[in-house]
Amino acid sequence: MHELIEKGTPWTLKEVGTDPEVIKQNETLFSLSNGHIGTRGSLEETHLTPEFSHSKSTLMNGFFDTEPITYGEWAYGYATHHQTTIPIPDGKKMEMKYDGEVFDLTSSDAKDHNRTLDLKKGILTRSYSWKTENGHELEVSIERFVSYDYPEIMAQRFILTPKDDNNSLEVSFELDDLKSMGKERDKEDDPDPRKKEQASRRFESDDLEFYDADMLHIKTHASGLHAVVGNRVVTDNDVHQQISDKNRDSLSFYSKANQTIVIDRFVAYSELYKEESLTENIIDNLIRTLKNVTESGYEKVKAEHISTMESFWEHSDIQIDGEPALQLGLRFNLFHLHQAAGRDGKTNMSAKGLTGEGYEGHYFWDTEMYMFPFFLYTQPEIARSLLMYRYSILPQAKERARTMAIANGALFAWRTINGEEASPYYPAGTAQIHINADIAHAIYSYGEVTGDDAFMLNEGLEMLVETARFWLEWGHFDDNRGGAFVINDVTGPDEYTAIVNNNYYTNLMAKKNLAYAIEWIEKRRRQLPDEDFNVSQDELTEWKKAEEHMYLPYDEDKQLTMQDDSFFHKKVWDFEQTPKENYPLLLNYHPLTIYKHQVCKQADTVLAQFLFLDDFSKEQKKRDFDYYEKVTTHDSSLSRSVFGMMASQIGEEKKAYDYFMDTALMDISDLQSNTKDGVHAANMGGTWMSMVQGFAGLRVDKGTLHFSPQCPSEWERIVFKVRFQKRLIQVSMTPSSTDYQLVEGDQLTIIENGEKKTL
Amino acid sequence: MHELIEKGTPWTLKEVGTDPEVIKQNETLFSLSNGHIGTRGSLEETHLTPEFSHSKSTLMNGFFDTEPITYGEWAYGYATHHQTTIPIPDGKKMEMKYDGEVFDLTSSDAKDHNRTLDLKKGILTRSYSWKTENGHELEVSIERFVSYDYPEIMAQRFILTPKDDNNSLEVSFELDDLKSMGKERDKEDDPDPRKKEQASRRFESDDLEFYDADMLHIKTHASGLHAVVGNRVVTDNDVHQQISDKNRDSLSFYSKANQTIVIDRFVAYSELYKEESLTENIIDNLIRTLKNVTESGYEKVKAEHISTMESFWEHSDIQIDGEPALQLGLRFNLFHLHQAAGRDGKTNMSAKGLTGEGYEGHYFWDTEMYMFPFFLYTQPEIARSLLMYRYSILPQAKERARTMAIANGALFAWRTINGEEASPYYPAGTAQIHINADIAHAIYSYGEVTGDDAFMLNEGLEMLVETARFWLEWGHFDDNRGGAFVINDVTGPDEYTAIVNNNYYTNLMAKKNLAYAIEWIEKRRRQLPDEDFNVSQDELTEWKKAEEHMYLPYDEDKQLTMQDDSFFHKKVWDFEQTPKENYPLLLNYHPLTIYKHQVCKQADTVLAQFLFLDDFSKEQKKRDFDYYEKVTTHDSSLSRSVFGMMASQIGEEKKAYDYFMDTALMDISDLQSNTKDGVHAANMGGTWMSMVQGFAGLRVDKGTLHFSPQCPSEWERIVFKVRFQKRLIQVSMTPSSTDYQLVEGDQLTIIENGEKKTL
């Protein structure tokens, strides 16, 4: 795929030819989405040519079905149900019969086949010239986009130019074969836990109900979710015959040489809803939406879409001069990040966005720690929606805490869609209680960056309080450690070390979580002295005590931060004797074999230090970086970006650059060999963080914006914008200097490398 | 069930009446077995009266089927298949039709219904008087036993005395309904992991093949095991009509008042075998066996059985004067222990013996640590067979070590039948690597007690070497602990504390395992200097270094032995706030909730100290006992006996007595409320250990037999025999004195409380 970048321009990904492997790979890369619906970049006639497809799914954020989890051996409190995203009817499908022949890429004679994803416009185009067996030619051009302006709408335009007269041309559209939906995915006998658990049940006929006007009502078997899909086909050309039944629209034309036929198609996907009785309303709304867009017409809807995309890039682009390949890779990442986020406060961002079914479509800590910063600093309203999703599942988090014998507070699920824990392996699931503090950290950052006190003093504070409460009960003051507050039997971010005591990252984040709750409770008491928030002075005192006495493991002899109490007592993994094909270790070694060694899947202590850069001396950070880098495999896609950012901040320029190049091009060059299952959305977020928080060193400390820029000497110039407390600031960074420009808002003082600058 | 003891005599368990609950409970207690086959104590007509039965299974030691284990989330090296004991055709079934009426206990008029299990003879009898609706009476008496002399044979005698003339009496026998076998078990929606995983597949018609002469060949679906079952019915009485087809024998008589009809039945169960081609041979052998027993006749076979049982009691009984209820309970335990042991070197003892399908019929460390001592000191040939079973699965143990990335050595499966790991939950499965040392400990003890050098220098040594090798690779010399040998990420016996570093029990046992291997390698080198055993001097040196530097965690401040590195850093479980119904904790709290507290399911450190009583000062043992007793729930049936034995040895007489009474009567009084699933064989072994190793303080130290008797003042006298180095010694213990008598063998010096005594 690498060629694709080098030959491309900084705004487009181009595919030329008909190599099935390339087209398959691009099914993921060419995915289009708007955070509500996402559709993979498969060919319109994939149903005829399965060899060109890995999975042609269309997905709806938050649409999943459940199945009971089967355990080899059950234990109390285990997650009870799989939640598995299931594809919805795929509205991309088209079948074309010209001159008596059905087109498919395998057996038809297609010349100049190419596809282009225009990142700037958010449009995927395809064109080719088809010669039938009788030697008659048809020029074909197809466009596709998923609208941000109408979240329900996917639009397609088909431009067909016959080169001869009087051949019959029949074009048919239908929703995908509903019963097998998702089942045509490449079957692999692969137990890789990172891939999706294939939902064994898809839709059955009972779950599908056709209404008039091409309206299909779908419902899940077990999770109680509903949605409606509608379909409209429009053409201004002379139609010889049109046959429409509920699932199929078929148009016949007679060709006139060089007279172009244009057909537009709008497929509308309603919001998902839970009460069947709402169906009629939902259908009415969807009909209205379809009427709007057909009346506006394809051109106008497309123009709106392009304008919205341009406005997105205006505020969110990172411009990198003199590096077209990297520039493209970077934009590709931002494009997909932007596509992945749920915007309705009821959905979030899954680990693969809406580009694939990997990880079952679950939401993880990835959102808050890797993807959230991008939105926070460029589109804070989306950041708020993402936090509102967490607020919407707070009741389930409280319930989960009760299951874990915690009487007060909340424990957010490690992986979930509907808020209930769906991780069937608790040592790398429920044990990762740091997710509570990760969410608290995102909330606090949101408050600092946006100044949105309305949220912070209510929903935000409620979450800070419930997560803080959790820590007090999970941990305890350990008399054997002079009363330090310890947190036992947890798993930190590094999943190659599980069920340990006092994971440094977890403890530090819990300390911050407590501090955040204390700060905002006190702020609320000042601002709303008469309104009780149900936190007693005694409770606050306990929080302060725990915060102050939080145990943070440190090895005085080695002068190193300890990942957990026992990390240095483990044997260092024998990297030299480990053949390359044995990575990732998790697929080739028993968990105990991994856990009993010093070996990290990903950044853990280094991440903790990166998040609070100013709390540690440069020497300390460097020592820890050097130590942990040696024992980290980066088997997680979340790892390299963090090491890269830290490298940048401790003066390891070469390493910073190398790590960055790996992360920036991870999916576009399929570094993890599993891009076909979907993009690595968290790593894409990591790319933005690497640029802005790594190389530019952006961070907020005590309400003030800091920068410590380190532009790699390989690059001419980097330009990006960030929003901060109602300002818009443009940063231009070269290896020798950095310029800050206030684009919108009031005067602001920032700190660059310890020195104040007023913009 | 308690009444049953108090009203009984010290040799018999008697059941009177027709209370379904009592009869159900006794299905377990009245089980009969010979280590090869076992049959639960259900009624002959249970197929007509399911309300009297929990499970009427007949089981064959080692006969199981496999199914793939389904995991919520897979990981490398996980156990791949369930191994589940499956019931074999049940040969107890009988149907009786008298005077036109079919007898069943629910609807028939049965007077004086009673059953007696004679422990001394190993025979279960049943009798009642049945009056039909027409008022005609039939006296019924049924006997049943499972032969030790003919391991294949289960025998029944039916003695039927009509009280009137000329009524038709039809008696039918068949093998149980084969397709539903085992499925009639009480259905409970109970995820308790301690219960058996119900094998979802039983026999299907393909797995059943009838041969001539009532010979049924059965095979498992997946595990590739075969067996043959044969059936013979014999009577000397006038038979009016006899109908025999392959699965059914039916005899008709006309009654003559007070003239007794006697029918004998022998059901023969072949050994299990793996090659289908052996079937004809196996059938021939089984026909021969059936011919032998039918020619000998029921009376003779029964007399042989009784004689064998008497000889067993002669050597294995523990007599306790003045306590008839306890005496009965004790004998009941020894009876079942004796019944449970596989004697063929290919099978072992399952956690429930052959009395139920609990724990899927798996073999655990229970054998070596709780049941083995009884056999070692009373029937060492059975002890040897049990060790030979481990030797037979050594290849699988080596393979398992490879899976765990251990290049040399063996790791025995935590739970298994065929030698492959079958534990689907590795934190309380594979992580309990102490099983390696447990087996080594049993081997070493066997060598000390029997002097069987032929075994020790070959099979025994090979196992000592392979287990020793394992420790060297799993653990390592920790520079951060001054080069001490540490063993990380294991679970000790206490399953309420999992995946810890340096579990005291594990480390001490590993140290001993190394010492055992070193001692016997050196012994072999002396005895067979020319025969290499494939252990280099370098390897031996490493073992010695690890043995010498084994890290044994100890808290100098508290003067307490640490169960593991982090045990004292955990919060003590809030026992006061834990309602009674929340025990056992494992059914009511998430594993993490349990693991992050100081709370023990069972003896762990205390067991380590009990096994090496002379390595610790009495004060140390008392401090540790006091500490760990407070945090132990005894949710495992393996716990109380160990605490009791230690109590006895540290002068806690009252506690020793109380713990003992709980363990001795555990099944007979259903203390754990799950006796219906089968007896707790390990606890039964614990009873023998409590008497002999607890109260009498028997142990071997440096080849010498030690005693430190502490007969509870509640008892008049305890008498038992032990075998030691080809001697038979009788010990008579009263609260004031102990007498040792050499019954067989050469003069021997023993040590009683530090003082030598020559017998």
Secondary-structure map with pairings?
The structure is a homodimer of 759-residue chains.
Chain A: H1 2-7, E1 12-16, H2 20-29, E2 32-33, E3 37-39, E4 58-60, E5 64-68, E6 81-85, E7 94-98, E8 101-102, E9 109-118, E10 123-131, E11 137-146, E12 153-162, E13 168-174, E14 208-211, E15 215-219, E16 226-235, E17 241-245, E18 248-254, E19 261-269, H3 279-296, H4 298-316, E20 318-321, H5 324-340, H6 366-378, H7 380-392, H8 394-403, H9 434-450, H10 453-474, E21 476-478, E22 484-486, H11 504-527, H12 537-548, E23 554-555, E24 560-561, E25 571-572, H13 591-595, E26 597-598, H14 605-611, H15 618-630, H16 640-649, H17 653-664, H18 681-695, E27 699-701, E28 704-707, E29 717-724, E30 727-733, E31 738-744, E32 749-752, E33 755-758
Parallel strand pairs in A: 25-26, 28-32
Antiparallel strand pairs in A: 1-9, 2-3, 3-4, 5-6, 7-8, 7-13, 9-10, 10-11, 11-12, 12-19, 13-18, 14-15, 15-16, 16-19, 17-18, 20-29, 21-22, 23-24, 27-28, 29-30, 30-31, 32-33
Helix pairs in contact in A: 5-18, 6-7, 6-9, 6-18, 7-9, 7-10, 9-10, 9-11, 10-11, 11-12, 11-14, 14-16, 15-16, 16-17, 16-18, 17-18
